[in-house]
TrEMBL record:
It is an enzyme of class 3 (hydrolase). This is cellulase. InterPro entries: GH (IPR017853), Glyco_hydro_5 (IPR001547). GO terms for biological process: glucan catabolic process. It comes from the Eukaryota. Residues 24-324 form the Glycoside hydrolase family domain. Its EC number is 3.2.1.4. It catalyses: Endohydrolysis of (1->4)-beta-D-glucosidic linkages in cellulose, lichenin and cereal beta-D-glucans.
Amino acid sequence: MLLSYLTPYIFLAAAWAKILYAGVNESGGEFGVFGTPGTGLPGRFGVDYAFINKSTVDIFVDQEKINFFRVTFLMERMCPLEFGLGSKFNETYFQEYADAVNYITLTKGAYALIDPHNYMRYNDPSNQPFSGSVIGNTSDPTAATTQQFEEFWHELALRFVLNPNVVFGINNEPHDMASSGSPTQLILQNDQAAINGIRSAGAFQLILAPGNGFTGGHSWTQVTGEDDAPSSEFLNKLVDPIKNTAIDVHEYLDVDFSGQHVNCTQPGPSNLANLTTWLHENNLKAVLSEFGGGDNEICFEFIDDLVQYLAANDEWIGWSIWAAGPLWGPNSPCCGPDTGSLEPGQVNDLGQPDAFYTVWPNSIRPNIPTDLKKFGISGLE
Ligand SMILES: *[C@@H]1O[C@H](CO)[C@@H](O)[C@H](O)[C@H]1NC(C)=O
Ligand SMILES: *[C@@H]1O[C@H](CO)[C@@H](O)[C@H](O)[C@H]1NC(C)=O
Ligand SMILES: *[C@@H]1O[C@H](CO)[C@@H](O)[C@H](O)[C@H]1NC(C)=O
Ligand SMILES: *[C@@H]1O[C@H](CO)[C@@H](O)[C@H](O)[C@H]1NC(C)=O
Ligand SMILES: *[C@@H]1O[C@H](CO)[C@@H](O)[C@H](O)[C@H]1NC(C)=O
Ligand SMILES: CC(=O)N[C@H]1CO[C@H](CO)[C@@H](O)[C@@H]1O
C-alpha cells in the first residue's frame, strides 16, 4: 500500500532531476560601445551590433539539438539615455531584438534567455563591466532607480507575455555594488523589483536571478568585491508569487575564474559544491548561463566534468556555454586569444577552425542531453 503511493513520487523526483535547457550564448547585441562615453550609441545594426545569425541558429538547433540560447542586449540601446531607463523603448532596437528572440523561440521552438548585458549598471557602458551608475545607488543622482528598473522589466515582460519560450534573465553579472548600506541587499532589492515588474505584467515564464561577485558560483557563499556580503545571505529571500524563479550562475575554469586564460585549473564540481548545498537547503534551482574553457585537452576534461556534474545534481536545470555570436569574427570570447568563438563557420585568429570545431565536439556535443525540454512554458520542470 505504502509502496504504491511512493512509486509515483519516485518517478516525479526522477523527472525533476534533469537538465531542461542546454545551449549557447549569442553575444553581439551589446558590442561596439567601448571607448569614450557615448561610443557606439545608439549604434548601427549589423555593423556595431547584431544579435544572431539565423543560419547558425539553424545549425545549433537542427544538427546539434540544443534548445537554449542566451541573447544579449544593451539597456542603453533599448532605453536610450535621453529617455532614461524605464518603459519607453527604442522601437527599432526592440524590433531587431524581438526578431532574433522570435526566430529562436517561435520559428525554431527553442528557449531564449533574455539578457540585459549590463552588470546592474545603466548610463555608461563605455568601460563595461566597471563604468555606469549602479542601479539603485541612492547616493548617485545620475543613477537609475530601482523603481525605474521595475518599470523597464514590466514593459519588457509585457512585450513577451504571450511567448512561452522566453526566460527572463534579470541582469548580467552584478558586482561591486558598494553603496551606503548593504551592497548585496541592493541586488536583492533590484532582483525583487524585476520579479515584481515581470509578474505584474501577467508573465509566468521562468526568471533567472543573479547574485553579487559577477554571479560567480565558486564565491556564492563568500564575501566579494570590497566587503560585499555573500550572495547566499540574500538571494534566498526573493519572493516570486508563482515560484518560477531560479538562480543565474556563471563559472569559468581558469586560475582566477575570469575566463581570460587558455588553461583550466579550477575544477567546476568542487568549486560549485557549496553553492549546490545552499541551493538544496533553500529548495532552489539554478542555471549555469556562462562557462567556458580553452582549446586544449585539459580544458575539454574540465568542461566535461563540469557539465556532467550539473547533470548529476538535481539543483541544476540548465546551462549555456560562452559564446557564439554573429560579430566575433576571429576574436575569442574567452579562454585565450587562440580559442576563437563558438560561432559555426568561423576561424580563430590563427586562421584555424574556431571553438565550434574543437571545444564543442570534445566537451559539449557528447553532453547534450537527448531529453531536453521541448514544449510548454519555461519553468523549473
Ligand atoms: C534607435 O535605434 C536605431 C537603430 O540602432 C537608431 O538608428 C536610432 O537612432 C535609435 N533612436 C534613438 C532615439 O536612440
Ligand atoms: C554610489 O554613488 C556614490 C556617489 O556618486 C559613489 O561615490 C559610489 O562610488 C557609488 N557606488 C558604486 C558602487 O558605484
Ligand atoms: C598552460 O598549460 C600548459 C601545460 O601545463 C603549459 O605548458 C603552458 O605554459 C600553460 N600556458 C599558460 C598561458 O599558462
Ligand atoms: C565551502 O564552504 C566551507 C565552509 O564554509 C569553506 O571552508 C570552503 O572554503 C568553501 N569552499 C569553497 C570552494 O568556497
Ligand atoms: C551566417 O552563417 C552562415 C553559416 O555559417 C554563413 O555562411 C554566413 O556567411 C553567415 N552570415 C553572416 C552575415 O555572417
Ligand atoms: C550571453 C552570455 O553568455 N553572456 C556572455 C555572452 O557574450 C557576451 C559577449 O560580450 C559576454 O560579455 C557575456 O558575458
